[in-house]
Structures are given as C-alpha cells and as structure tokens.
Design goal:
- The longest helix has 30 residues, at 85-114.
- A two-stranded parallel sheet has the order 1-2.
- It has one domain (19-422).
- It is mostly helical and 425 residues long.
- Helix 2 packs antiparallel against helix 3 (85-114) and helix 3 packs across helix 10.
- Helices cover 58% and strands 1% of the residues.
- The structure holds zinc ion (ZN) (2 copies).
- One zinc ion is lined by residues 111, 115, 149, 154, 336, 340.
- The site of one zinc ion has 5 residues, from helix 13.
Length: 425
C-alpha cells in the first residue's frame, strides 16, 4: 500500500535514508547517539511508559555534576601547570565543551521536567527543577519558563511568532524576513559574538534568577550561589570555578545555544498557503540529524576513499557538533513539538516508531547537517522559498484523503492514542 506519510527531504539533502545505511554497523546505540536518529521498529509506546524513575533521573543529574566537579579540578591543574598559555587554552577546550554539554543537558532535562515528561509527581518535578536543574545552571525559574516555553513556544497560535521568546532571540540577533544574503551570512557567523548580545545574555540570566522573580526564588537562588562561591573560594578552586564553570554557563553556553538555535525551527514562518494549523505547525520544525550515507555499495579503492571521508566527517564534524551544540534530544526536537509528553531518554526511538505514520501534523521531515539547515533558513529568509520539504505538494495530493485528520472539530474521526498525547503540552 502506498505510504502517504513517508519522510520528506530537502533538495540539499542526500535524498536517501541515511540512517538505514548504518544498520549493519556494530554499536547501534552509539550510532543512534551520533546521528540522533534511531532504527527502532517497535510499536509506539504510550508517553507514560517513557517517563523516568527517580533513580534514573538522579543518575542523569549526577552525570552532569560529576562532569562539573571533574572539570573544575582538572581546570585548576591546567591553570597551575608550568606550560604556555596557548597550551592552556588548547587543553581547556574539551573542558569547556563538556561543561557546556552537561549544563545545557541539565537545562534540557529541566525542560522535560516542566513538560511533565520525566516524573509524574508535580511536587517532585518542581523540587528537582528548582534545586538540581535550574539554580545550579542559572536557568529560568519554573513559573517564568512555563509561560515563555510551554505556553508561548509550544502554543499553536504563538509558536514561531513575535510572541515566541525563541523567535525574539533571532530578532535580537538581527534576523528578519526579507534579509539580503550577505547580511544573512554575516550575522550567521558574527551575531553571537557581538559584545552587546553577550552582555544581554548575562543580564537576562541575572535578572531572571535574582531580580524579577518572586522573593522565594530570589532568596533560594542567592543563598545557593552565596554558599557555592564561598565553598569554591575556601577550597582554593575559585579561579578554576570562575573560568570554567561560571564562564561556561554565562558565556560559552551562548555560542553553543546559538549554533543549534538557527536551525531549530523555521523562524518568522507565515502560513501563506493556508494549510490546516497543525500541518503548518508541523512544517515549522524537522529532525536535524548528523551523518552522511555509509558507502555500502562502494568497493575497492573507491570504498577506501569514501570510508576515510566518512570517518573524518564523523570524527571532526558530527561528534563535536553533537557534543557542543546538539546535546540530548535536540536532533529530535521536531518530535518533541508533536509529542511533548514523551520522555527524553526515549525521544529518538519513539520518533522512529512514529515515522511514516499518519499524523495531523503531516509527514515527518529531516535534514542531515548544519549546512543543510542553514541553507533552508537562507532560502526562507532571503529568497522567499519557505517550503523546503514541499509540504504544499504533499498537502494538495492528500488533503481530500485525510480531510478528517486536518479538521480539528472532527478530531475523533481518525483518532489514535497518539492524538491525545499530542495535546498534552
Ligand atoms: Zn518543550
Ligand atoms: Zn521548539
């Protein structure tokens, strides 16, 4: 039977199922992590089955804290070592990378906690969110994050509009519909390094953590950070703590966040073709995977050449990008928008389980590199080409067959368990 919900690609992609070309390789768990895409073929689970137990959550958090402690200790050894400053910078790079990876990892865990996609208990969720996931990395307090992320960023009518703080972030970096291409490229490479952007980010962190939140949050956050700074000072690790830990969460994190943010969604999206609102919502986001087709069919010297190229790309592009900017669930962020109640440990396998299945959000779509994501952003903002996956072609071919799916009043007509889960934002 013809599958009308097959995954769609852009003209800049490989046009093939890249992940499938990895299927014969050993260590499939590793390839799922590197690419961000799973080959899971089991039936979709209920969102409830993907939640974590408390020990699993504690394990997840402990891994982050272990990286922080180890980094500050190793950082002090580097700072105290009798070596040139250039070597010190070089040795510091992996430390910054790992602290950014785990501080943004904790932030993403807190993001799932606030969606109710980690623990069922709201009281426990609030506790973990506040004390272990938010305060230590200067993340936004619960009430404010609920408002700006869960309500506005996920909202059917506010996602990717001027009401969405994530789009405001792009506006502040100078992006808009109808940009000229030289301006686009200049801003892609330079905007996050503008001193004013760095200042605004630090100011925002201080404001939301210590000034504009309620008195309880202010007191808790100020007390926590006072104790932390005192301990760092008294233990002799203050300099290392300040440079590697505080420097990472206030400055370096911002560069990491920027890299993934550019391609996170189709910012400044306009529903020009009048698609049903869920189809339009689905079109604003796509799977962002890393890798290139494994040379399955090549032989002899041609295979050797293509294999070496593939290994170099995995080692120097895919893995560093995944570690520094696309940690945790970010390659499958499109699926999170469709099913926000699914836990992050299960996001890749669950996305795979739902792939090619009917959805009122339309078919799933995917890109396979940062470059591909940036090119479709360029086409959208500078060339007025805003339908990289040809959703319009797909919609025109299928709108009558799936009319009931797209009519919100008749949601039950093709209802599945997934439809109920989708709605839990
Ligand atoms: Zn979310
Ligand atoms: Zn999003």
């Amino acid at each position: 039977m013809e599958n009308n919900f097959e995954t769609r690609y852009t003209k800049y992609g490989y046009g093939v199922n890249v992940r499938k070309s990895y299927e014969h390789l050993p260590f499939q768990g590793f390839w799922t992590w590197v690419t961000g895409k799973s080959l899971n073929s089991a039936a979709p689970k209920h969102a409830r089955e993907t939640l974590l137990t408390q020990p699993q959550l504690i394990l997840q958090i402990s891994w982050g804290y272990a990286v922080f402690f180890a980094s500050v200790i190793i950082g002090k050894i580097i700072l105290d070592a009798d070596i040139s400053w250039m070597l010190k910078v070089l040795y510091s790079l992996p430390i910054f990378c790992m602290i950014v990876n785990r501080s943004r990892g904790l932030l993403h865990t807190s993001h799932y906690v606030i969606h109710g996609a980690v623990l069922r208990s709201k009281t426990l969720s609030r506790f973990y969110y506040k004390w272990l996931l938010s305060i230590p990395v200067l993340h936004t307090p619960w009430d404010e994050y609920m408002k700006i992320h869960v309500v506005k960023h996920h909202g059917l009518g506010t996602f990717s509009t001027e009401h969405d703080v994530d789009q405001v972030f792009m506006t502040k970096h100078g992006f808009y519909n109808g940009m000229r291409e030289p301006e686009f490229w200049l801003k892609i490479f330079l905007a996050p390094f503008h001193p004013l952007r760095i200042y605004e980010h630090i100011r925002f962190r201080i404001l939301v953590n210590f000034i504009v939140c309620n008195w309880n949050e202010r007191l808790c956050r100020a007390t926590y950070w006072f104790i932390l700074i005192t301990v760092a000072y008294a233990s002799g690790y203050f300099e290392s703590f300040l440079i590697y830990y505080v420097g990472s969460i206030l400055v370096v994190t911002q560069f990491s966040s920027w890299i993934q943010h550019i391609t996170e969604h189709q910012w400044f999206g306009v529903n020009r073709l009048n698609w049903p609102k869920h189809v339009f919502y689905g079109s604003l986001t796509w799977g962002r995977f890393f890798g290139s087709p494994y040379p399955v069919k090549a032989e002899g010297w041609r295979f050797a050449f293509m294999f070496c190229k593939w290994v170099l790309k995995v080692t120097f592009i895919d893995i560093p990008l995944r570690l520094f900017a696309y940690m945790q669930d970010l390659p499958s962020h499109d699926f999170h928008h469709r099913f926000p109640a699914v836990g992050f440990w299960s996001i890749a396998p669950e996305r795979a389980a739902h792939e090619n299945k009917p959805s009122r959000y339309g078919p799933m779509t995917e890109t396979w590199s940062m470059k591909e994501g940036i090119l479709i952003a360029r086409d959208h903002l500078c060339r007025g080409q805003s339908d990289p996956f040809d959703i319009e072609g797909w919609y025109q071919a299928n709108k009558h067959t799936y009319a009931a799916f797209f009519d919100n009043k008749q949601r039950g007509a093709l209802s599945t368990q997934s439809l109920k889960e989708e709605c839990r934002v």
